[in-house]
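User: Okay, second chain of the day. Same drill as before: sequence in, structure tokens out.
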Amino acid sequence: MFTKQEICDVLRGSLIVSAQAYPGEPMRDPRTTAQVAASVVAGGAAAVRVQGLSDIQATRSAVETPVIGLWKDGASEVVITPTYQHAYAVALAGAHVVALDGTRRQRPDGLTLTETIDRLHEETNALVMADCGSLDDARSATEAGADFIGTTLAGYSGERPKTTGPDLELLQQIREAELGPMLVGEGRIHSPSDAASVLAAGAEAVVVGTAITHPATITSWFVDACETS
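Assistant: Same drill. Structure tokens below.
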């Protein structure tokens, strides 16, 4: 098990790759997720982010890097590891870091973000990444005890417009606020130049998912380019 300092040292200035597939897709299989995770680690990814308990377990066996795990579930606005029981299960599945909804929206189990994070820290060895959508979310998640702040939900929680690329303005706002937790840039990072701009805006690590691990979307970009040429 990694210590918090070890994970921070590994992630700082590095690339985290999100390996996820949507339900019903050909790649939606824990074995495939683990193979993709091992492939991106071979390419230099410092850590991987995966969704689902079986995927987390399979990935833990496939890589020796930190695993950020989450569980998308439910029909409410809060779907990324929405309750404490989801978070606890993600930790038990082997995630070194549990990613959860870090917005100020009502959680389905009625617990506050502080209560959720406190219990997770007390009952497991896992760290917590709060997926936020605004500066106020980041401030609240910091006060709640989050170990990492991600901009995953920028443009999806209703507080900020959805930018075409990464929300660099939000990253700059959070960095200038000097909140304390490691700042991880995530969301709509579609190219190496996007990743570089995220780090330049103040992120200490960057998460890239679709542009690396989602063939259907990547293929559609090329198809669109061919059709409009």
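The chain is about 45% helix and 15% strand.

User: Thanks, on to the next one.
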